[in-house]
């Protein structure tokens, strides 16, 4: 095959000895099978910023340190030199994380070399000896899904103990090797000690795994492994061998109603997706996002008489009444309702 330009310096420099074939073109990178000293390995080349789809990069790069203050300043100003430095930092973030995780005993591909922005690493092999399939392509039994979830959760615990939150963990970035799952694809990984989005990203990572594997087992329903893990981490009580239960009781009262609403909407979207995947009709129409109430209510338009405000009250259940079906969704019509909901906790 024609050697891709990005791999020419590696071939010329003798880092790799042959390019066998393209393996996969992902959203962020092109991955090739290459030959190194008679062995088959993987070379990952990164797409240029314009061809990439990763959104909100600043949410991930916050708190990252670069080698010198000149680069730091140029990156902040986003000059041409600065943009090149940003690109270089994005590429080298993955190799840094992979080395760190591999020495912490996390199941990631063994890195081999990082040359001219190309990462050469171990080829993860499946049961047939060929490139391993992704988790998204697997068909699992209930027990396999449960076991796989717990193996992956333990890897996420080990990663957090090693100071890494993946940030894009999903059934697309887990490979099923012959000896267990392996986690890949780290350029967006964040350092939980320096990035304010780390908790959200960690909880989302765990939720992604839970919602994919939860299609095969209902035993993961309602579990809050991500929140539990983060609380232990924040309290310096998380260890690489900590076993999580999925039970989590929030201690403090939330003060940000909008982020609570975002979480409720995310949970509803997840449940809708699960029903879709199972071919079931949606349970009820999607909630209309609630707008925050302006500080001073606007006066009604002069020609229209002001509408009487309707307050929705929850019906009191008669004593001894049996619960009948799922409870009604709570509508936050007014911020009074929201206050009441928050203080229920
Ligand atoms: N070390 C590896 N061994 C086997 N397959 C790999 C390896 N690394 C990547 N791949 C394959 O290449 C695909 C894309 O790689 P990935 O690192 O996820 O990049 P992207 O950011 O483009 O998603 C993966 O889904 C996987 O199928
Ligand atoms: Mg990927």
Q: Short summary of the structure?
A:
With 345 residues, this protein is an alpha+beta fold.
**Structural class by secondary-structure content:** alpha+beta
| Uncertain residue ranges | 315-345
List of distinct ligands in this structure: adenosine-5'-diphosphate, magnesium ion
Strand order of the largest sheet: 1-2-3-5-4
CATH architecture of the domain at 135-276: Orthogonal Bundle
CATH class of the domain at 135-276: Mainly Alpha
The proportion of residues in beta strands is 5-15%
H/E series: HEEEHHHEEHEEHHHH
Q: Please bin the fraction of helical residues.
A: 25-40%
Q: For the terminal residues, how far apart are their CA atoms? A: 62 Å
Mean pLDDT: 82
What's the story with the biggest beta sheet? 5 strands, antiparallel
CATH topology heading of the domain at 135-276: Transferase(Phosphotransferase), domain 1
Shape: globular
Distinctive features:
345 residues, alpha+beta, Transferase(Phosphotransferase), domain 1, five-stranded antiparallel β-sheet, two-stranded antiparallel ribbon, 34% helix, globular, disordered C terminus, binds magnesium ion
Could you please describe the fold and organization of this structure?
There is one protein chain. By secondary structure, the protein is of the alpha+beta class. It has a domain of 142 residues: Transferase(Phosphotransferase), domain 1. The chain contains nine helices and seven strands. The chain has a five-stranded antiparallel beta sheet. α3 crosses α4. The C terminus is likely disordered. Bound molecules: adenosine-5'-diphosphate and magnesium ion. The site of magnesium ion (MG) has 4 residues, from loops.
